[in-house]
Amino acid sequence: MMSASASASMSRRSFLAGSAAAGSLVLMHPFSARASVNQAHLRIMETTDLHVHVLPYDYYADKPNDTMGLARTASIIDAIRAEATNSILVDNGDFLQGNPMGDYIAYERGMREGDVHPVIKGMNTLGYDCSTLGNHEFNYGLDFMFKVLAGANFPFVCANLTKGDLAANGRDDDLFLKPYVILDRMVKDGSRKELPIRVGLIGFVPPQIMSWDSKHLTGKAMTRDIVRAAEAWVPQMREEGADIVVALSHSGVGPAQYAENLENASLLLAGVEGIDAIVTGHSHLDFPGPKFEGIEGVDNARGTIGGKPAVMGGFWGSHLGLIDLLLERDGQSWVVVNATSEARPIFKRVERQTEPLVESKAEVEVAVREDHEATLKYVRTAVGKTSAPLHSYFALVADDPSVQIVSQAQIWYITDMLKDGEYRDLPVLSAAAPFKAGGRGGPDYYTDVPAGDVAIKNVADLYLYPNTVQAVLVSGADVKDWLEMSAGIFNQVEPGKADQPLLDPSFPSYNFDVIDGVTYRIDLSQPPKYSSKGELLNADASRIVDLQFNGEAIDPAQKFIVATNNYRAGGGGNFPGIGPDKVVFAAPDTNRDVIVRYIVEQGTINPTADANWAFKQLPHTSVLFETGPKGAEFVSSIKGVAIESAGEGQEGFALYRITL
User: Fold this and answer.
1) Are residues 305 and 432 part of one domain?
2) 530 & 399 share domain
3) How many structural domains are present in the chain?
4) Are 224 and 202 in contact (CB under 8 A)?
5) Which positions of the chain have pLDDT values less than 50?
């Protein structure tokens, strides 16, 4: 492990790295090329939402992938440093969980004292100056997280994670980590003169971790509202002499109107006096970018959020976020006089193919080679067989085998767990959603397991997150509202009209719960009852029709047990009527473990979807949706819906038509 003094020396060299390329053919950023006396160019480089994607390798598909990997992002860092006279490198969180390498370390190998996690090994080669925490850092528990952090040769900051109850004043909170660091560095101005600068870096995590990882955090931690924490600590940073303050916000852009404990609060954070720039993340998007056009408080052309320069560097290493600040000496301090931002990609898409723009950095690949090989062995271990393919290409438009098998396993498990208790006579339903359903993940981001052997990599592919199983006690009315919320993924359709867009792209697929054990149809001519955030939009709307249990109309007062995960049971997704007060069983087992055990128990599973839900027929009406091009192999097997090809979609997707 690199010593603290060596790390500091490396960071100082990295900060001034651009000067080494002054005489080369590197195209300098205009701020570096044109800075005058007492002006300096400072470049802030950001990675975010790496999710353990150290290498350009998809462990779920067990093949290389040019769209991901810190090793690829790393290969452009040196060149990007060289474009600027002065630079810093930060990470914005969610680096610890998200692919089988993370699960292998957490569940199989473990973290002994002195071990260095593979994602930290990769990061340690690159000269990071600082990182904050994302929500997924807590998925494996606090002890595991802090063992991982101990291996880093750069600091971690988080200003809103406390060890106990919140203090009356944010500055008095007992924090797990330093709220901020102030880097004392030298910058070269336009005359190549070195001048001192103090750069403050402060970090924030979404308060929702208290719900999402309550099993790890209840009684051990608490979170303060992001904006309120910033209002407490940023003035102190200025009091301590920070010339420039950069917020490491593991939070999306969010609304312009304040509400307490917002998950996505970066726009409001930008309004805190004393913050000069913001690196964001959590949303798995790239900013500036086309998805941010027309959002209140966001200037996509200028790359600002709330008037402050900002960036969001994609996810899985897909982009390197860049904020360039032109600073001017104001007496003994510095002020920002101009700024630009950019999310620079590691690949480009040409028609349906991806082409890498960079190669991997050898030092990163060497650092994690042994961990990579061990992960491959781990994910290739067979646990059973499937009699039919498991795929999710049509999971958003029809009952689906990849969701079906999750529900079968959950019902099997919860029925057994409750068989001797007070709920043993209640019917057990299951709620499950497709995790890999294209969208922001691209046209290859689907579950695709052929008939035959099922390995651990396939189970991880079916269920991406290390959630735990929970059971909730609900009424028939709750079941209907649960499904009404899920049906918000669909646009309202005008009867008699052809080729209308079916799916709302802002509605995440992991909130499209299918409930097995009941049958129902979805009336697309009705408006959605709830927004994607669980807000009541149309109280009288009823998209869910013909809802039946055991062939009879469901009784709104009847009681049901629904098997789900800790995210949904804890209130994740803001589903109406679902929350911690409804939980009657919290399992010690992850949903993945339950699926593995179910497959082992069955030997051979039959994941064929039972078509328990479908769209209500609307004469002379059709809709369009996109899926991965490989879905063509399975379209003829989809039950309960008439699907036909409608040509090519955008960005590599295939377009399909459903006649209702």
Assistant:
1) no
2) yes
3) 2
4) no
5) 1-10, 12-13, 17-24
